[in-house]
Amino acid sequence: MFQYLLLLETEEEKEFFKSIYKKYRDRMFYTAVGILKNESDAEDIVHEVFLVLVDHLDKIMGREPYEVWSYINTTVRRRAYNLCKRKNIQEDSGLEEWQQGEIFEKGLDKELEKEELKEAMAGLLKNLKSSYKEVLILQYYHEVPVQEIAEELGTTPDNVRHISMRAKRKLQDILEERGLWNEKG
User: Fold this and answer.
1) pLDDT by residue (tens digit) across 151-176?
2) Which of 9, 32, 147, 168 has the highest Cβ tally under 10 A?
3) pTM score, two decimals?
């Protein structure tokens, strides 16, 4: 934290930064880990976001706590998704160590079903063109809102919805070809 404080000028800025660091650092990390599935990359993202916050502290000082968290959360999510995009991360079916505890809490059968479904969907997504695949992964795997996807892709929310609709139609066609879907759904 001290490295960031050295970059700030006033005591007011330093106190505000200390408070957001203490309050949000863990939440930022867990948000990034949830997206990246890698603790080292998540730490890097959190560090990057704190550097961004130092430069843009004036945008959030004096704001309501929910507005501060919204700004921070959006910044963390965007940076994490950008890193995913740069590394071309594909979701794998292997389980990270930190996920093992969740399995025993939720029940092994449910988690295995969920992983099998993810694997099957990943196989189906390989049949889609990259723009379709990208939108569906962001929308359904990472649960990114349409507005954020649009900003990330440099397009409009309406266009994202159209891409998503066409991608789902294409998936339906693939399932129909394989005899796994009928008109009744």
Assistant:
1) 888 889 999 999 999 988 888 887 78
2) 32
3) 0.47
